[in-house]
Amino acid sequence: MLLGKQGAGKGTQASRLAEHYDIHHLATGDLFRDAAAAGTPLGLEAKSYMDQGFLVPDEIVDGVVDEQLRADDRMSRGFVLDGYPRNRHQAERLDETLDGFRLDLAVDLDVPTEIVLHRIAGRRVCSNCGANYHLDNPPENDWTCDVCGGQVEQRDDDTADAVMRRLELYEMETLPVIQYYRRAGILAHVDAGAETEEVFKHLVELIESRFDPRIESR
Ligand code: AMP
Predict the structure, then answer these.
(1) Tens digit of pLDDT for each residue in 61-107?
(2) Whether the Cβ atoms of residue 61 and residue 27 lie closer than 8 Å to each other
(3) Is residue 117 within 8 Å of residue 4, measured between CB atoms?
(4) DSSP 8-state class, residue 193
(5) Has 10 been annotated as catalytic?
(6) What whole-number distance in Å separates Cα of residue 90 and Cα of residue 70?
(7) Ligand 1 centroid vs 4 CA: distance in angstroms?
(8) CB of residue 166 inside a 6 A radius of ligand 1
(9) Residue 218 pLDDT > 80, yes or no?
(10) Which residue, by CA, sits nearest to atom 1 of ligand 1?
């Protein structure tokens, strides 16, 4: 599980980890953005909260996560969580959903607020595949995604007002989640102010110092 402020790099690192270990990447924010783009009732409802920087209500999040985690053999094969749990209710609810399956590690991606503000202000995302770019690191051709050719644009919730609200909610709602996993004895910190590659290397070292996910049978 990756925890950390908006702009800490959870999405980027979670998708790298999922690819590296060939496991499912569950990103609730991506699920809501996809549902909103598809115009489903759930997506449109979620979008009305997201665009203002509010959390989507727990009843909606709980249903989506249950469905996702119970699909296929995700619980036995393993998964990486990104953007979930966001509050204490969700953390407790996740324990119930896992029903005896073990959470191995919760990593807090530590990064100073000045850095996340710079990252979010310049963040641009592919509207098709979700690949991340920045004004300082644009795609090769005129805001067309290098990976899939989709349109690269600013997220609707990366506006100044929504970002301030999201950071406030992070302090109020998500910091207690960090405390929750500290008490459970599975919390670790990684300095996420560094370059993407370096952070990824630290994450892999951390994971493999705890256990080898490729050989352990779970
Ligand atoms: P993210 O992509 O993780 O930054 O999430 C974008 C937005 O989706 C958040 O600001 C929330 O509005 C919503 N969201 C994502 N995950 C959750 C969650 N676990 N609980 C509530 N809202 C969420």
Answers:
(1) 999 999 999 888 888 889 999 999 999 999 999 999 998 888 999 99
(2) no
(3) no
(4) S
(5) yes
(6) 16
(7) 12
(8) yes
(9) no
(10) 29
